[in-house]
Design goal:
The complex is a heterotetramer, with 2 copies of chain A (322 residues) and 2 copies of chain B (358 residues). Chain A is α/β, with parallel strands linked by helices and 322 residues long. Helices cover 38% and strands 20% of the residues of chain A. Chain A has helices at residues 6-20, 44-52, 60-72, 91-105, 132-136, 149-161, 211-218, 240-250, 265-276, 299-305, 309-321; strands spanning 3-5, 24-28, 53-55, 76-80, 111-117, 142-144, 165-171, 179-181, 195-198, 203-207, 227-231, 234-236, 253-260, 286-290. The N and C termini of chain A lie far apart (44 Å). Classes of the chains: A alpha/beta (322), B alpha/beta (358). Bound molecules: thiamine diphosphate (2 copies) and magnesium ion (MG) (2 copies). Residues 164-166, 194, 196-197 of chain B line the site of one magnesium ion.
């Protein structure tokens, strides 16, 4: 198995699905001849043509809405937001049209919206956001957020084949930083199942996306403690049993994400644990997240806002000592 | 910018200019039938509402029957439609039974959404319809997506969608028009100008008649008398034909009037009485009745009888439907199978002919 | 003090502010001659004229964006969404322009967006939503949700005078159902302070909006237990101390809201408690909310989805017995 | 639909047709000065970027100097502006020091947002500017709101905003145009058609030149040569005058070319070389230089010297600025005081004259 980057794995997965299933097609700004702002669709225009690799006008609601229409007619659109932040401009079609369609009229909407998300490279307030939690508060939408190259490819395949609207969060800060041995050909990473990034017995760190790597680095060696790191992979539907199982084993939990704090995915995970595993807890459920502020541009400010390895270390140490 | 205005078709089908879509006597009977059926169904719904059998609020399309019936009449079975809250006639024409509509409004299990949604917020996927959402005009981009699928698969099919005058002020309207123009999509946009957006008159929604915008999106804009069912049909048939032949989208503006309040709660105090009077003289059903009467070849009395009989039994059916089972409320948020849409009824005689020739 | 409805209290508060401060004005669909879909601005057009009571075109992003522009130039716009659900159509301007303006460039944006929210009267999936949690995940926006006529007037005044964008959630199901003795003239209900709807010592129910009344009814007499009911009133900034104080007293908490469950305001409250009051808890923190589904139209379905008095009773009973 | 095209003003101010805004020799020197200052600042910024001193990505408006300078030159001190990422010249003209821009791009505390935002995502509120957000064209509705405030207070003031060709496809563009037309707001929209939206050519963004849409919103659309600073100025001055006198909005389309990539990372492989060549022959600064040279009344060498000297000291100042204090990162999310905006610099000689007459 060749070692490729997270970015290449996304391209690879998308290309495989398009080769295998002629109903799969892409929509997005500058994804055509240019190959996309991050080059995920590099070469797609040449291979699949202008129809299946549509350079759309600057109109997110039209893109998402057209994807809904194409999806119910039997196609499998994959929309690319140039940055995840722009999903705010296609928000209405997503939450009101796509998300509620099946519940209201039994009409499935198999579509994917790719969201290049997250910060860590001075993207500033509009190119660094992690919008996932909005969509857990919007019934009818599935949400995945791979942290490895393997899962990036496998979850994209699952998302494309799923008969529901799926938001696919690809963390920009993993694009070229993370590599992995990725199987050639088509395979799926099942949605709704978390992954155990590292097994442990003393404490559980629950995370997803880029922060999984921060968690692994931070907990490599904390005074020799045995720390389990969970990679949620799918945020909706959440693998509640998987989370509870780990908590029952370790009894101590740190929930870590890059998104802002209030009503974030971490809040849902903490609440789940506080409700379902209260008796198993040997300490408070601790959240490490960005505070409730826009993500600033300048490196020292951005570092101060986004969770850092040391923040995680400190949280774990305190909780271990509890 | 030139906007053509479609004229009512002369009654003798043999004197048509070539480009005009031909209507047989039976076709005209059907046009009348669906307008009558829409009005009868909505009158029945209003009665049920007043009897307290319709939860929430209640909306209808009184006075706009010619728009939905005339435009939907141009659709072939495999065409697709995203229908607006004023256009019950289009649903009925595609094959939705009045009983299911009444059951829908009463929130019964037998309604089109099984009680999950209400009012006109439905579409029968088995009849090629995608139900509207409340956010307007969100179905315009969706219709573009349906048309995109047809175009990508080189199918001679059309997506039709309807929206009101007020909705043309919304950004999604523009995005849909522009995208349809850029991709030359086989979509027909029917702008239903019923003079008001809820209580808001055209003058507060736009400065220039939106039909003027069509050319700036690169496709034709056609304005018709929305109370003349055949004029609406002719414009729609031409637009559908153009779309099927790769000619791209058309914006049709049907000038009409909302003869009831925005909803049953709305007393229309903001509408000048003389305006209502003037428009009531242009009632789409009465005026078509007069024309058919002249021609003399449609038996209107028997038609009315038919419709009334149908409505009576449909109403009984609807009232016999149960309320949905509460235990089902939380299921079915996510699909486990791919979407399947069926085709709609297409009463225009042309389709039967084509089928028999094929 | 005259007894008036929640709806009249909102109108009264808005009218008072407009009379007193000529920079306050209203924007919204059908709010002019018609007086608004719910008649909140009934008579305003006649008193204040078409300029200050603007019947806007059907364009939420333009409305919110124009409000931002008018606000930074010294006016105090009050936008009405015809239903809270339509804020999804003005979402981008709200979260990206209004919410981030002050942090990015030190320019305050004093504006209010009124959101007639909530269900309970067969409004269906598009006229019943409770969108508040989206905005706790969107830094820079304040959120208030009054449950009484008094607070409805007082919090609207505070929201209008606040130099920040404030989302004002007015629950449609309280409009004519709830009455209160409301002081004439102008007064403010301070933002960021919860209210204690009923004092108690055995268990705390944390809620806001219409559900405060459900909580009070449900807990009137549960086997004689002394149950405290907190009315959050402001959701952002959340009165964290006020919540913790009550939890430390009662040691048992039920969090109740009408909005859907995942990443809702209840998740934030539970997490806060699990993190800060772990040692004070004598039982799991229980959430009573709508499940993650669109709000259905038909009465039996809607009742099954929205929290009912009996659901709250049962949750309290179980927790008391814990 | 008729769209007028403004012609470059003849150089002799005394031969102007009455309606044209007069430019003195000093005015012309200022126009040139700000174009040179914009280019010099952006060249310096690019150097700093290549030296690794600018975090994140980097964008500039190379080749579009005449658009931002020519249009902003028409603004009075009390007018307000929402400026686009291609329009540094407008910021400089309103009084932003180049050093603060360089510091902004380097994420320094001395930058316009103190490092909280980057690139061209800023606006100096003390100079009457509201900084853009990345979502395009979100400042168009905001500009309408500024104009609404002026209109409601009967102040003869104008809001000006800029957006690109690609942004005209977005719904918010339409909503802003329509609302401005309906309320007849004193706002000037400058559409900067630089041929591309990132890599996407006009042909994929729209079918018909967006200037054609202006009339359908009920206000004038004026197309000008965006590389002719005086043509842009004339059209803008007329539009501002009309707005001040209650004539409502104007859409100006400035035809120009983005001579650099969308960002510094973009190699422009999608742009035909001959297209770049052709446009480089139309460089706005060189062509204006030629005209001023003819006229002979502006000492260009000293002007260049001036600008270079200013840039050198401004760059030193910028490089001397500290990075922001991390402990400030989480403060200032909510305001505790009402907004206060200041007025901008307005170099056009007309304003000095009016002030002295007043
Ligand atoms: C995006 C959006 N905002 C607000 C509303 C509330 N609303 C419901 S109907 C209506 C008026 C619609 O007018 P028009 O488009 O002319 O359609 P009509 O009802 O007249 O057929 C409004 C504003 C809505 N449905 N969608
Ligand atoms: C709503 C929105 N969607 C996507 C983007 C990503 N994006 C940044 S610049 C750009 C192209 C803009 O083109 P144009 O409007 O012509 O402005 P230009 O950069 O050419 O001046 C795009 C698509 C954006 N900024 N905003
Ligand atoms: Mg209307
Ligand atoms: Mg451009």
């Amino acid at each position: 198995m060749p070692e490729i980057t997270y970015l290449e794995a996304i391209s690879d997965g998308l290309r495989e699905e398009m080769r295998h299933d002629s109903s799969v097609f892409c929509m997005g700004q500058d994804i055509g001849e240019y190959g996309g702002a991050f080059k995920v669709t590099d070469g797609f225009f040449e291979e699949f043509g202008a129809d299946r690799v549509w350079d759309t006008p600057l109109a997110e609601n039209a893109m998402v809405g057209a994807a809904v229409g194409a999806a119910v007619e039997g196609l499998r659109p994959v929309c690319e937001m140039q940055f995840a932040d722009f999903i705010a401009c296609g928000f209405d079609q997503l939450v009101n049209v796509a998300g509620k369609m099946y519940y209201r009229q039994g009409l499935a909407v198999p579509m994917v919206v790719r969201l290049p998300s997250g910060g860590g490279f001075s993207g500033g307030p509009f190119h660094s956001q992690n919008p996932e939690a909005w969509f857990l508060q919007s019934p009818g939408l599935k949400v995945v957020a791979p942290s490895t190259a393997e899962d990036a490819k496998g979850l994209l395949a699952s998302a494309i084949r799923d008969p529901n609207p799926v938001l696919y969060l690809e963390h920009k800060n993993l694009y070229r930083r993370i590599k992995g041995d990725v199987a050639e050909g088509r395979y799926e990473t099942p949605m709704g199942e978390l992954g155990v990034a590292r097994e442990g017995t003393d404490l559980t760190v629950v995370s997803y996306g880029a922060m999984v790597h921060t968690a692994l680095e931070a907990t490599e060696d904390i005074d020799g403690a045995s720390i389990e790191v969970l990679d949620l992979r799918t945020l909706c539907p959440l693998d509640r049993d998987g989370i509870l199982e780990s908590v029952r084993k370790t009894s101590k939990v740190v929930v870590l994400h890059e998104a802002t704090r209030s009503c974030g995915v971490g809040a849902e995970v903490c609440s789940l644990i506080a409700e379902e595993a209260f008796e198993d807890l040997d300490g408070p459920v601790v959240r490490v997240t960005a505070p409730d502020v826009p993500i600033p541009f300048s490196p020292p400010l951005e570092r101060a806002v986004l969770p850092q390895v040391d923040d995680v270390k400190e949280a774990c140490r305190e909780l271990l000592a509890y | 910018m030139a906007t053509t205005t479609a004229r009512p078709a002369p009654l003798d089908p043999h004197q048509h200019p070539a480009h005009e879509a031909r209507l047989t006597v039976d076709d005209r009977r059907e046009l009348m039938r669906y307008m009558l059926l829409m009005r009868a169904t909505e009158e029945r719904a209003l009665t049920l509402y007043r009897q307290g059998k319709v939860p929430g609020s209640h909306y209808d399309g009184r006075g706009q029957e010619a728009v939905s019936v005339g435009s939907a009449f141009a659709l072939s079975p495999r065409d697709r439609a995203c229908i607006l809250h004023r256009d019950l006639g289009a649903h009925l024409l595609r094959g939705v039974r009045p009983g299911r509509v009444l059951a829908q409004m009463m929130g019964r299990a037998g309604g089109l959404t099984g009680g999950r949604d209400g009012n006109m917020h439905f579409g029968d996927k088995d009849l090629g319809c995608v139900g509207m959402v409340s956010m307007l005009p969100d179905m315009a981009p969706v219709a573009c997506g349906l048309a995109l699928a047809f175009q990508m698969r080189s199918e001679p099919r059309v997506a039709m969608t309807w929206f009101g005058d007020g909705s043309t002020a919304n950004g999604q309207w523009h995005e849909a028009m522009n995208v349809a123009g850029v991709r030359k999509l086989p979509v027909v946009f029917v702008l239903e100008n019923n003079q008001f957006a809820y209580s808001t008159p055209n003058s507060l929604e736009f400065v220039v008649d939106p039909i003027e915008r069509a050319a700036s999106y690169g496709f034709p804009g056609v304005k018709v008398d929305g109370n003349d069912v055949e004029a609406v049909f002719q414009a729609s048939a031409e637009a559908c034909e153009r779309a099927r032949q790769g000619g791209g989208p058309t914006l049709i503006e049907a000038e009409t009037m909302r003869m009831h309040g925005h909803g049953a709660h709305d007393d229309m105090s903001y509408v000048p009485p003389e305006m209502l009077e003037e428009w009531s003289r242009r009632d789409p059903i009465e005026s078509y009745e007069a024309r058919l009467h002249e021609a003399g070849d449609v038996d209107l009395d028997s038609l009315r009888e038919e419709v009334k009989a149908e409505l009576d039994s449909e109403t009984d059916w609807a009232l016999a439907q149960e309320m949905p089972d509460p235990s089902t409320a939380t299921g079915g948020v996510f699909a486990t199978e791919d979407p399947v849409m069926g085709d709609g009824k297409a009463p225009w005689s042309r389709w039967a002919k084509e089928a028999s020739h094929a």
